[in-house]
């Protein structure tokens, strides 16, 4: 089954490459697709929405698609002065599916702009392709620092976060407590960046990490060995970075082993965000995390966003939804002033969009190609018959750590 | 280092809990493979079905009624699914393993898609029934009481199975079928009945193990393959159709997953298949298969 799909995808890719070469040639002689001359921007824009529609990240893809659709619905289906056609492509779980998805959007669908991407390896894997096509990619989740850091290209921007940015906010906050910490994250790139960011900020502020653990990513179902280590290490608090099914397993087992009442659990906000919080249930109560969003933020933009989202989809929004919502917001602003739909033109316009003052996460700006944004300390609390990430403290704005 | 001793005691205990749960899952797979020569790759999907049953009947706060109800429903669903699988694989009985594997893999994929369509792609958290959701002090560390109960239950199941297989006429039939299926048929015993019975029993065990394992593993897409792979490793290490082998192998894998990960955390991903490779090199037919016991 997998074989036939791959062959079909391969054929589609080969076909697309041929069409792309021909269409690209035509396009350059006509003077750029998308309609409308540079002087009066307007016409149509094709947006490729790259989101996971199957696999472990599928719930994130749903949130992202929801937010994108909602934004367009509330803004007359226009980004800037352009009528929007959205073409969604399935990113899947990793670059082996994500990269061909982007390739298809660029070559076969001839999109003008790309939005989305959950997996950092996919975001880094399409770098050359996007650069060659000179199209803008607005990453609305993937958190690897390199995407907008050392491997930066002018065409790839993000409305999300970097892994180290989120965890260093927690490191700085907890350093003041004078306590010792046990740090744990899966042994893959995002986990290493999160622990690195936390440890750097925590030790810079005078804290001490007594032990660090890296359980095998995607292969650990039972965290008992680590939970016993945490008890034995004498650490006064635990910092962790987990997402998805691993976040559910870790938080639930942390409570099942009686640790939650003795050694407080802290983490990057993804630990308790969206569907995983529902699955964790009471086990998550009291867990504290840092993130650049919470449904409980008290600002007008968030209230409007949250009630519109809740009304349309019958569930509260998540940070993944907000990041995609903001991707539409910044593209909308940039396209009002951009001289065209080419990557350079949009990137130049993005560089001068200034403060995004109507974001549900609160005001933020681009610092380089990644947000400088406020981080919030959040604590899981019961609210009615559900759980929320209540905002405990505003930790101030920070940029991507270098 | 008393710390290490404490960790050791808890890790060994935990390995026992995981191992006994694995035994309940894997013994069905082993019997179906050993007695019927059918590689049932849908076994993991049955486990996941059981886990989702536990969630949908009990939700986040199960009662004893919902918990026992989930076990009963899982047993029925497992029995029906086992009967269905028996009928499905019947026409392929004399064909190669590959064809059977393709068929059951197809069933597994369909079931996984259906579960994903019904329950969504979000993880569904399951908790133990009331009274078993606390902790017990073991060697100075807190240990979940549900896992202790699981040890008792798994040990009881293993003992019951041992008695049935070693001491009853039914068990004699099981052992005879593993040793020589054709001779059993020649002795006038309806092979189709044996086939259906084994499939039903194995599938019931898988589905009820799904309920029992759900407070540890939760219910989520992808759990079916994780469990299937662990069960396959147990079957290969223990030897096809050997209940004692499955028991020993499950306990070994439980310890590898628990104590092994605690002591050699850097090698964690390698340990499981490393053990498998060593067993395959030393005893290719499994630890507990006698010279005339295995089928090729």
Give your account of this protein's structure:
The complex is a heterodimer of chains A (402) and B (296). By secondary structure, chain A is of the alpha/beta class. Chain A is 44% helix and 21% strand. Chain A is built from 14 helices and 14 strands. Chain A is globular. In chain B, 74% of the residues lie in helices and 3% in strands. In chain B, strand 1 and strand 2 (141-144) form a beta hairpin. Chain B starts with a helix and ends in a 14-residue tail after the last helix. Chain A binds chain B through residues 1, 56, 58-59, 62, 213-216, 219-222, 224-226, 228-229, 231-232, 244-245, 248-249, 252-253, 256-259, 275-276, 278-283, and chain B through 3-4, 6-7, 10-11, 14, 18, 60, 109, 120-125, 127, 133-135, 141-144, 146, 215-218, 220-222, 226, 257-259, 261-262, 265, 268-269.
């Amino acid at each position: 089954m997998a074989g036939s799909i791959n062959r079909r995808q391969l054929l589609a890719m080969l076909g697309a490459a041929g069409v792309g070469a021909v269409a690209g040639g035509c396009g350059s002689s006509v003077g750029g697709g998308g309609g409308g001359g540079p002087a009066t921007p307007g016409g149509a824009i094709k947006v490729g929405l790259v989101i996971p529609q199957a696999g472990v990240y599928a719930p994130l893809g749903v949130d992202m698609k929801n937010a994108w659709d909602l934004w367009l619905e509330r803004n007359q289906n226009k980004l800037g002065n352009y009528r929007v056609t959205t073409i969604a492509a399935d990113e899947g779980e990793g670059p082996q599916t994500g990269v061909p998805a982007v390739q298809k959007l660029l070559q076969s669908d001839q999109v003008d702009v790309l939005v989305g991407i959950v997996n950092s390896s996919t975001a880094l894997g399409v770098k050359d392709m996007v650069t060659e096509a000179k199209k803008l990619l607005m990453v609305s989740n993937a958190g690897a620092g390199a995407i907008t850091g050392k491997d930066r290209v002018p065409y790839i921007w993000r409305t999300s976060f970097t892994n180290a940015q989120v965890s260093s906010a927690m490191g700085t906050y907890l350093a003041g407590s004078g306590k010792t910490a046990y740090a744990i994250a899966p042994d893959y790139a995002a986990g290493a960046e999160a622990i690195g960011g936390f440890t750097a900020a925590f030790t810079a502020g005078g804290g001490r990490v007594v032990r660090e653990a890296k359980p095998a990513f995607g292969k650990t179902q039972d965290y008992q060995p680590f939970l016993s280590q945490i008890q034995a290490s004498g650490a006064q608090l635990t910092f962790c970075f987990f997402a998805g099914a691993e976040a559910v397993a870790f938080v639930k087992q942390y409570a099942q082993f009686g640790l939650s009442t003795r050694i407080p659990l802290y983490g990057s906000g993804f630990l308790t965000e969206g569907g995983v919080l529902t699955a964790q249930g009471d086990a998550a109560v009291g867990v504290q995390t840092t993130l650049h969003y919470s449904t409980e933020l008290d600002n007008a933009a968030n209230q409007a966003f949250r009630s519109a989202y809740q009304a349309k989809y019958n569930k509260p929004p998540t940070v993944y939804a907000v990041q995609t919502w903001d991707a539409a917001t910044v593209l909308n602003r940039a396209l009002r002033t951009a001289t065209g739909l080419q990557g350079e033109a949009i990137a130049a316009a993005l560089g001068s969009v200034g403060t995004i003052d109507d974001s549900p996460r609160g005001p933020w700006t681009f610092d380089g190609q990644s947000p400088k944004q406020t981080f919030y300390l959040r604590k899981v609390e019961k609210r009615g018959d559900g759980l929320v990430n209540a905002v405990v403290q505003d930790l101030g704005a920070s940029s991507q750590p270098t | 280092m008393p710390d290490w001793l404490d960790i050791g005691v808890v890790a060994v205990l935990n390995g026992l809990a995981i191992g006994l749960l694995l035994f309940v899952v894997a013994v069905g797979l082993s019997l179906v493979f050993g007695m019927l020569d059918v590689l049932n790759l849908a076994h993991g999907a049955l486990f996941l079905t059981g886990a989702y049953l536990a969630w949908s009947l009990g939700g986040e706060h199960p009662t004893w009624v919902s918990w026992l109800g989930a076990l009963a429903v899982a047993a029925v669903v497992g029995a029906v699914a086992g009967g269905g699988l028996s009928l499905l694989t019947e026409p392929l009985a004399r064909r190669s393993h590959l064809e059977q594997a393709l068929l059951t893999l197809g069933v597994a994929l369909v079931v996984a898609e259906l579960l994903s369509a019904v329950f969504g792609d979000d993880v569904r958290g399951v908790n133990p029934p009331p009274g078993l959701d606390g902790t017990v002090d073991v060697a100075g560390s807190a240990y979940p009481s549900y896992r202790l109960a699981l040890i008792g239950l798994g040990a009881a199941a293993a003992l019951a199975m041992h008695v049935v297989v070693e001491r009853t006429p039914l068990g004699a039939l099981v052992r005879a079928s593993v040793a020589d299926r054709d001779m059993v048929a020649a002795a006038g015993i309806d092979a189709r009945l044996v086939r259906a019975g084994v499939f039903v029993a194995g599938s019931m065990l898988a589905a009820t193990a799904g309920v029992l394992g759900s407070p540890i593993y939760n219910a989520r897409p992808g759990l079916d393959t994780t469990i299937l792979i662990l069960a396959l490793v147990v079957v290969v290490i223990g030897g096809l159709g050997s209940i004692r082998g499955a028991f020993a192998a499950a306990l070994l894998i439980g310890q590898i997953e628990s104590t092994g990960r605690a002591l050699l955390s850097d090698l964690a991903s390698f340990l499981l298949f490393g053990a498998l490779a060593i067993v395959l090199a030393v005893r290719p037919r499994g630890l507990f298969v006698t010279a005339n016991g295995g089928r090729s």
